[in-house]
Amino acid sequence: MVVASPLAAYLLVAALLFAIGLAGALTRRNAILVLIGIELMLNAANLNFIAFWRYGPHPEALTGMMFAIFSIAVAAAEAAVGLGLVIQIYRHTRTTDLDQMNRMKG
Amino acid sequence: MSFVFYLIAALTLAGGLAAVLLRNTVHCALALTVAFAGLALLFLGLDAQFAGFAQILIYIGAVAILVVFAILLTRSSETAQEGVFSKSWFAGLVIAAGVFAVLGWAVLAGARALPLVAAAPTVTVQDIGNALVGRYVLPLEIVALLLTAATIGAVIVALHEKERTR
Predict the structure, then answer these.
(1) Are A96 and A30 in contact (CB under 8 A)?
(2) Which of B155, B103, B91 is closest to A18 using CA atoms?
(3) Which residue among A55, B99, B130, B140 is least enclosed by CB atoms within 10 Å?
C-alpha cells in the first residue's frame, strides 16, 4: 500500500507506535515495562506534533514544535517520579509484578 | 516517500515491538533505546533539528538510563517463572488493536485532504529560543517548576525508609 501524502505516512507510523506502546502497557506484568509502554505512547504523540508542525500551514509559528518540547520535559518528569514509585513499591512488597499488587495498604 | 523514511520507520517500530515483547527486561530497555534513536532520526527527517537532538539528550541520555537503573535496583532482570505477560493479556491486545484500527482508519479516510508537499520551514534554534522567552515564557516557567517539583518528589519517594513501628 502506497500512501501518497508524507504526512499520512508519519501519522500511520505514530499510530502503530502508539498501539504497540498501549499493548505493552496493558499486557506486561512488570511495572517498569508498563512505564516503557507509556513512554512509547508519549513519543508517538510527539511524532504527531512534529509531523503536523512540519506539514501545517504556519510552521514559523512554532506551535507544534513548542508542544513537543514541553511534552518531552513533562515525560522526563513523569519517568523520574514513576520509576521512583516503582522502586519504593519494590522495597515494600519485594515484587514489581502488577498482578500481585492488589492492595492499597502498605 | 523516500527509502530512508521506510528504513527509519521500520527501525523505530522494530525497536518498539522488541521493547514490548522481549522476555529479558534489560533487553527491553536496550530495544527502547533503539526506538528512541529511530524517533530522533524521524524528527531530524522532519526538519526539527532541535527536537531531534533534545530527544537524543533527554530520552537516550536520561530516561533510558533511568529505566536501566530501576531495572537493576528492583532485580527485574531475572525473568519471572510464571511468564512475563499479565493474565488479561488477550483483552489488552484486543484493546490496542482496536485503537490502532480506529487511528489508522481516521488517517486513511482523511489522507486525501492532507497536503502532498510543504516547503521546508526555515526555523533556527535562535527562533525557538526567542519564542521560549517571548510568547511561551509562562509555560517555560511552569515546566521549570514542574521539573524541580518532580526531582524533589522522586528523591523523597525513593528515599530509603526509616524503620517504623507497625
Answers:
(1) yes
(2) B103
(3) B130
* pLDDT above 90: residue B160: no
Partners of residue A97 on adjacent β-strands: A30
Domain A7-93 in CATH 1.10.287.3510 = yes
Is there a contact between B146 and A54 if contact means CB atoms under 8 Å apart?
no
pLDDT band at B166 (very low <50, low <70, confident <90, very high): very low
Query: Domain spans of chain B?
Result: 1-81, 123-166
Q: Which amino acid, A69?
A: I
First to last CA, chain B: 63
- Chain B interface, mutation test: which of A42, A81, A83, A101, most B Cβ atoms within 10 Å? A83
How far is the C-alpha of A65 from the C-alpha of A103, rounded, in Å? Answer: 41
Residues whose CB is less than 8 angstroms from the CB of residue B162 and which lie 6 or more positions away in sequence, other chains included:
none
> Which of residues 73 through 92 in chain B touch A, CB cutoff 8 A?
73-74, 76, 80, 83-89, 91-92
Q: Are A10 and B43 in contact (CB under 8 A)?
A: no
Q: Is the pLDDT assigned to residue B21 strictly greater than 60? A: yes
User: What's the maximum distance between 2 C-alpha atoms anywhere in chain A?
Assistant: 55
Residue B75's CB is within 10 A of a number of other CB atoms, namely 12
Q: What pTM did the predictor assign?
A: 0.90
